[in-house]
Amino acid sequence: MDNRIGEMQVFLRVVEAQSYSEAARRLLMTPSTVSKLIGRIEARLGVRLFERSTRRLSLTSEGRMYHDKSVALLAELDGIERGISRGAAAAGGTIRVNTTVSFGIFGLEPLLPAFWQAHPEIVVDISLSDEIVDMYLDRTDVAFRVGPLQASAMVARRIGVVKRRIVASPDYINRLGEPKRVQDLSRHNCLGFNFRRSAPDGL
Asked: How far, in Å, CA of 44 to CA of 115, rounded?
């Protein structure tokens, strides 16, 4: 396995400690492992990185060059990762949302101020419609709908429960009577949805 970054880090720790044994102690390795890793770098480069003596280690000219390049490379790598991390944390762009008129007004709109405060770089483009739209053709990212999901390859998540009620004014009940069964509604004046996606009989 190619682990040149790890080998560089070991090399820099040896330079810092000026000792294989001390570097090994700080890295929780054995001195023989540290020596083997330094030897692997030297074999790959075809140069000696350290001048070894009984008292201390000192860098060769090639070792000083490798040290400077390693420090710069690892700093650049850290910068790349920090930049990507900041970019992921600070999401931006436009998200296109489609939902029903009622849910958009009463469900989504109250949440927008807090969402924008948390994600100021995101633009929310909301389309309100009680028709079922083709998300692909309409370039919709997220759709909120009420009711059962038809057979689809789309990913859906249940976020709540909506209860339906049939209501009438007291004056209407006094004049035409109170329906006792769902079937009775066919004999009453019902004000319901006439959209293509609505349930039969406007219920």
From this structure: 53
